[in-house]
Amino acid sequence: MGREDKKGFEVQIPADLAEDLCGVSPHAPGPADEETVVAVEVGSPPPAGAGDGPAADGAPADAGRLRALQEELDQARAAATEAKERMLRVAADADNIRKRAQREKQEALKYGLEGIAKDLLPIVDNLDRTLAHVPKDSADQALAALREGVEMVLRQFLDSLARHQVVAFGAQGQPFDPARHEAISQKESRDVPPGTVVEELHRGFMLSDRLLRPALVVVAKAPAETQAGPGADGDEGAAGEGPASD
């Protein structure tokens, strides 16, 4: 490789100085004032800004990476919050469904006999009507035995209904209650205050705390006044005195 291909530059220094610098003796002795040529290769300097590149570009890259990570973190937090709210709503809906199902189950157990109980109530009505037509203190042994048998059947029937929370209530002599009584007519009476039940056509029944059937009743009302006004006698007296004055 020629001298022109080498990088660097050449300088001429005295031999003794070259010996001190390089630590080697020249190949051939020469005069004291002979100058020795020493080639010193110096690499080309790095391009401008090459050393500052990584340091200068590192800070913006790190800042951008931090911003991206912060955005991902914010998105993850928002997704977690939304998932938590959705989970709470689903849990609340499930709890409401469970409570509603439990309430419907309890109501079904409590009021499940409503249909069949209503179908059995006419039997009670017929037994009551039978007793109403049989005298209590009849001298006829057959009628007495019939009444005793009907009373026993009715009592057992009512006891069976009561075991299933179907309980009868009476209305005779009580004030009329539109929530429990159904009035079919009114009857004038001086013995009881107006609005009092004077007759019960059939009993009312409760199923637990719910009205199963209202009592069918007749309600008392005040009697109509039929007396003539006091002016009628006065007119007759005045008319009778006219001829006497003549």
H and E string: EHEHHHEEEEEEH
Helix content: 40-55%
Question: How many individual β-strands?
Answer: 8
CATH fold assignment of the largest domain:
Nucleotide Exchange Factor Grpe, Chain A, domain 2
Contiguous helical run count = 5
Radius of gyration: 61 Å
* Sheet with most strands: strand arrangement: 3-6-7
Which strand-content bin applies to the residues? 15-25%
Structural class: alpha+beta
Q: What is the overall silhouette?
A: rod-shaped
Unreliable segments (pLDDT under 50, ≥5 consecutive)?
231-246
Task: Give me a quick take on this structure.
This protein has 246 residues and is an alpha+beta fold. The protein has five helices and eight strands, in the order βαβαααββββββα.
Give your account of this protein's structure.
The chain has 246 residues and is of the alpha+beta class. The chain folds into 3 domains: 38 residues, no CATH class; 56 residues; 108 residues, Roll (Nucleotide Exchange Factor Grpe, Chain A, domain 2). The strands form 3 sheets. The protein has a 3-stranded antiparallel β-sheet with strand order 3-6-7. α3 runs antiparallel to α4. The longest helix has 59 residues. The C terminus is likely disordered.
Features:
single chain, 246 residues, alpha+beta, Nucleotide Exchange Factor Grpe, Chain A, domain 2, 3 domains, 3-stranded antiparallel sheet, 3-stranded mixed sheet, 8 strands, rod-shaped, disordered C terminus
SSE layout and pairings?
Blueprint: E1 9-14, H1 15-22, E2 35-40, H2 53-111, H3 114-132, H4 141-163, E3 166-169, E4 181-188, E5 197-202, E6 204-207, E7 210-213, E8 215-221, H5 231-245
Parallel strand pairs: 4-8
Antiparallel strand pairs: 1-2, 3-6, 5-8, 6-7
